[in-house]
C-alpha cells in the first residue's frame, strides 16, 4: 500500500477528478469487466425437500465464465453429478430428488465471474438447511391454582432453523382469548397475571409453526383447574418478566427492538412505558400485547438509552429499567462505483463505510488481496480510496472493497475500464416529455464516451445554446427546467462532444394545464343505516385522460355493492359503523393528480351502559355508578335512570332522575318500602341507548306515609249525602304495608268535632243523612302499619243538591221582528234553588203556522242563560207562526218546575222562493212560463213580481221589463217577442213585508225558417289526433248550451250526446278504430249538417290464442267431452272383469300411458306450436302413437271390439291412427282424442 500524500493540492486535484469523472453505464457492446447482477442472500436457509439453487448472475464483454469456492476451497462441480451450473450463468442447482440430504451441501459458497478484463466476486453465501425438530415427549401433570394467583404455562418449543412462530389454541383449533390479564410473552409462554375460575380448562395447547417447511407441531395439552374455595387476596404488582430489577439489551442498527414487561397482581396491573431523558419515537414505535410489549422498528443509534416499564394497580406500582445499546454492522456511506477512463486520464474509487465498532477496509483486485496482486504503477491505495493516474490501455480490472466489523461485512465490486470511445447518445430519439405547468421538467440525455463527453442543449434551433438561471444542467446530461410554462414547449437538442467525435439527439416538451379539484368532498355526519353522498368535481387539461379514484383511509374502497362510484360522486348506502373514516377522491391523469379528503362520521345511539354498582346505602338513598357505553361519535348528553319496584309493580320501569352526560354516578333519593332495581339509558343526538342490565336489588325499610292523598273533594250525589273523594297514594307513596285512609268531616261553622272513619283500598266515602247543600270541612289522612302521615289540610265541600222548588215568574215575550223575539222573567228566590244556581232554560216550540196551507208543528228548542240573566233572545223563529214557551231554573241536580206556558204569534215575513219556474211553451214570437207558490209563504201572498230582458250572443243584457202578477196566477204568456232571441226571466213572491228571493230561467224563441235567414252553424269540420276526433264549427245562434252528437254510420242505435264546454271545438274520445261515424252539432231548435268521420284501423299486436276467452271455452268443452268418453270406457272395461290383455297391462304397466286415477283427470298442457305433442305424450311427427314395441295397449288398438257385457272378443291389431278410418261408434282412445285436438 502506498503512503498517503501529504500535500493539499494533490488531494484537491483528486477530489476534483472524482467529481468530474462520475460512474457511467457502459453499453454492452463495448468491452467491459464482469459485473455481478444477481446473487443469493448471504444467509440462505434452504428447504430440505427442494433442490438447492444458489444464484450468481453477471454481465460483461466478453461474457464472463464462472467458478465457485466452498468453505474457502475450489468447488469442482464436475465431480458431483448432482450439482449443475446453468448454461450462460453461474447459478448452481443441487439436485436432491434422488434421496440426497441437503445438509451434505451446507457450507460457505462464493462465486467468481471472469473475463479477459477482470474478475468479480459475490458475497460469501452461507447455506444452511431449515430444521423443524419434533417436540420431545413429556408427561405434563395437571396444574391446580388458587383463584387470584399468577400462573405461567411454559411452551419451550424445539429449536428450529429459523425459529418457529408460537401460538396457543384449544382442541377445536380456536385461538385462546388473550387480554391484559392473560397474554403470550415473546418466548411463547402464556402468562396469567391472576387466574380466575373461567380459566379452568384441559386443552391449553402450544403450537409451533416452522415457516420454511410450513409445518405445525403441537405440545401435549396442559390442564388447568382453578380453585374458588376462598376469597382471593388483592396485591400490588410484581414483575414476572423480567425477573430482575434492571436488565440490558443490545440491538443492531436497522433491526427491530422488542422489550416486554409482564406483571403479576390483583387487580390486573396496567403497564406503561417511558424513555428516560427522551421521547419514545412515535412514528416507529408501537405498543403490543396489551401494552406489555414495546416494539421499535428500524432501530437507529438515537434509540439507545434507558427505557422503563411501569405496572400499576390500586394497591401500588412497580417499575423495571432496560438499558438498550445499539451497535451496527457495516453500512455504506459511499459504495465504490465503476470507473471508465480514457488512456492517460486520472480517477479515483472511494469505499466509505460506517458501523459500531468502526469497520476495517480491505481492498482486493480481481478477487485477490491487492497486496498480492501484480504491481500497477498507475494505482495508489490511500486507506478507503484508490487513486489512478496516467492509466494505460490493458490495465482494466475489477476491484473489491470489503468493510467488516464484529457484526458483519460489506463486499462491493467496482471495475476500472480503460476505453477510448467517441460520444454516443443512449437516450431514445424524439421522445415526447409531458409536464404540468409550474412543475419541473427533466429532459434526459444519457450519453457514453471516453473521455467523458461535454453536453450542451439547444431549443428549437442550433442558433443559441441554453443557459441562465431558468435551466439546471445535471452531471448526467439531463436538462432541468424549474418552472415549466407553456412557452417552454418545443423541440430540444442535446449535443455530446469529446476529442474523438460528436453526437446529438432531439426530444420534445409539452407543457399541460394542471389537474385541480374545484369542489372537494365535505365533512359528513350520518346516522347508521342512512345513505351518504360525497361529491368531487375537478378540471384537467383537455388533452389528458382523467380517472377518478376513491380511497377510504388511504386504501381501496371495500368490495361492497353499497359503495357506488359515479363520475364525480361516491354514494354509500345503508351506512354501517365500519364505514366511518377518511374518504379521499383522487383525480389522476398520466402526468399529475389532485386529491381532496373528507371525514365521514357515523353516529348512532350510545352503547349500553355497563357495570352498574350500588354503594353508600342509606335509609332513603343509595349511590349508583356505571360505566358508559361507546358514544358512537356523538357525545352523550345525559343519562336517564329508571327503577323497577319488584314488590308492587314487577316488570314496570319508571323514570327516576336524569344526570348530565359527563357524570357516571348519581345519588338517588328513594322511598321507603320499595324493592328497587335500577337501570341506566344514555342519550345522544341520535337517541336513547338500549337499557343497561338491571342492578342488584336494593330494598328500603317501611315507614309512615310522607304525604296525604291529593285532589280531596266533597260534593253530593243525592240531596241528603256528601261524597268525599281523593286521589289514592301509589304503592311507592304508601311507604309501608297496611295503607288506609282516615276520612274526616264536619259541618262548617256548625260542628266543633270531627267525624272520622278509616277505609282501605277505596278512593271515596259517602256520608249519608246530611242537610241539603250545606258546606262541610273535609280532610283525608294516609296511615299504614308504621303510623299516620302528616296532618292534612281541610277543604270545603257541599252536600248534595235538590231540584229547585220554584219556577221563574212574570214571564213576558216581546216580538222584535218576524224571526226574533225577546223573553223576560223574574229570578227565583235563593231558598228555592236548594243548591247552586247554574242558570235558566227557555223551552219553546212552534205549534202551528197561521197560514191555512201549512200548519205542522216544529221541534222543541232550548236556550240556556246564565244565572244572573233575567232576559234573553230567541233567534231564527219562523214568521207567521204561533209559538209556546216556558222557563225553568236549574242547578247541579237538575231543572225545577216550569213557568206557566206562554203563547205568542210571529208577524208576517218575506216569502221563500217559488217552488218551481219553467218555460212550458216556445213559439216564434211568444213564450209561456209556469211557476209554483213558495213552500215557505211566511204570510199571506199578495202577488208575484215578474221581470224579463233579452240576452245577446255576447251575454250582454237588454232593457229589463217588470210585471206585477196576482197571487193566484201560476203561468204567464209573453207575446210579440223577437224570433230566435234569447230571453232571461226572473220571478219572486210577495207578502205585505216585501218580496222574497228570485228564481231565474232562460229560453230562446224559435228560429225563423224563412230562406233569407242565415243558418246557425257553419264550417263544421273534423281532424284526427292521438286523443280522438277533433270537431270544430262556427255558431251564430243565441243558444248557450251546445252538444256534439255522433252515431256509427248505418247503425240503428240512438245518437250519443256530449255537452260542449262553451268553446267551438270538441274532442270525441273513445271512438272505435276502423269504423265510420256520423257527427253533428246541435242546439235547442236547430242543428248542423251531418259530418262523416272515419277512424283508421290499427294493426293489432299478435294475440296469444291460448289467452282468448273463446279458445279457453272451446278447450274446456272438448276436455269435458273427453272426460265423459273416458268414464264410459272405464265402465265398459270394468264390466268385462279380468282378461288376458288386461292382465298383461296390469303386469307390465307402461310408464307413459297409465289408466288415469280418479283424482288425476289431467290430459297434459295445450301447446300452440304446430307439431309439438302434448306434455306427457310422445307422439311422432307422423301422428301415430307408438308404444316401445308393445302391442298390448288399449290406446293403440284401432279395431277393439266388446261383447254386450263389455268384455273383449277380438285381438288388438296395432293399427295406427293414419289407417284407423273405421265407422264404429265406440269411444275413441283418450290419447288419440287429444292428438286429434293438436
TrEMBL record:
All copies of domain Fibronectin type-III, residue ranges: 608-703, 705-802, 807-909, 913-1009
Subcellular location: Cell membrane; Cell projection, Growth cone
Keyword hit for Transferase: no
Biased composition (Basic residues): 849-859
Organism domain of life: Eukaryota
One of the record's GO cellular component terms: cell surface
Predominant location category: membrane
SUPFAM superfamilies on file: Fibronectin type III, Immunoglobulin
InterPro entries: FN3_dom, FN3_sf, Ig-like_dom, Ig-like_dom_sf, Ig-like_fold, Ig_I-set, Ig_sub, Ig_sub2
Keywords: Cell adhesion, Cell membrane, Cell projection, Disulfide bond, Glycoprotein, Immunoglobulin domain, Membrane, Repeat, Signal, Transmembrane, Transmembrane helix
Family to which this protein belongs: Belongs to the immunoglobulin superfamily. L1/neurofascin/NgCAM family.
Functional description taken from the UniProt entry: Neural cell adhesion molecule involved in the dynamics of cell adhesion and in the generation of transmembrane signals at tyrosine kinase receptors. During brain development, critical in multiple processes, including neuronal migration, axonal growth and fasciculation, and synaptogenesis. In the mature brain, plays a role in the dynamics of neuronal structure and function, including synaptic plasticity.
Protein name: Neural cell adhesion molecule L1
Provenance organism: Carassius auratus
Gene: LOC113042979
